[in-house]
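Exam revision sheet. Question 4 asks you to relate a sequence to its structure. Input first:
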Amino acid sequence: MLVSQLAVPGEGSDPTRIAFRWSARLLVAASWISGALFGAYILLFFGGTALSGEAARWNESLEGLYDGERVWGTLAIGAHFLTGGILLLLGPVQLMRSVRQAMPGLHRWLGRLYVLAAGLAGVGGVGFILANGTIGGSLMNVGFGLYGTLMIVAAERTFTHARSRRTQKHRAWAIRLFALTVGSWLYRMEYGFWFLTMGGAGHTSEFGGWFDGIMMFFFYLPNLAVAELFIRAGRTGGGSTARLSAVAVLLATSAFVIVATWVFMTDFWGPGMISGMTGAPL
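Answer key, structure tokens:
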């Protein structure tokens, strides 16, 4: 799967290549830790409450997630949560070069699981929208539906190119898939940061505000733009200007991830993990 994403061809002693490599590693490390924490929160809170027969408590996280009268919609969003948690926890393992080199067989099988989970997450999300719709109405249906569709396409392309041993295309699509799989995590991170800095301006409880409208697409389209920048900057022919631009974006994104992770872990994810394991209300 996500093989050698941090490798920069022809690195040598070029300072822009070195800066690009280390800024990329910083972002990946911060994202790994944050994504793993969020993945643990998903599995412990949503999985824990479901196993204890209290799936209705999903609505404590977001109103409308659980509807006992719409079984297929509930199953679809449950599959979405389960596979999403797996994706966030598997991502760091798949990016470890030591695992790929020392245990290529494990890397390949985990890669298959990763692609399968991504495809199911996309199908589950789209299935929930078709069955239940979203709290934000038509615009959110379109935005989230497009996200799920892109996830399915990226998973298929990543797997197909890997099977055909088209290494460069596989690598590019794997990066795009990873950028999409962190979307649900970033959605919450970006909302949290907005509430922290702007007090929730442009947000309504029905997700019908101007900021809500932006966020229906913002949590994944910029990720894909950064992924494309990363792909182009990592190529042998990438120029110094492109690499320096990538470094600036990567460092700024790392700072955001670190600050937002701290806020979310202390205020939301940590309490949610405890709640899912103990049954205590959020």
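Marking note for examiners. The radius of gyration is 19 Å.
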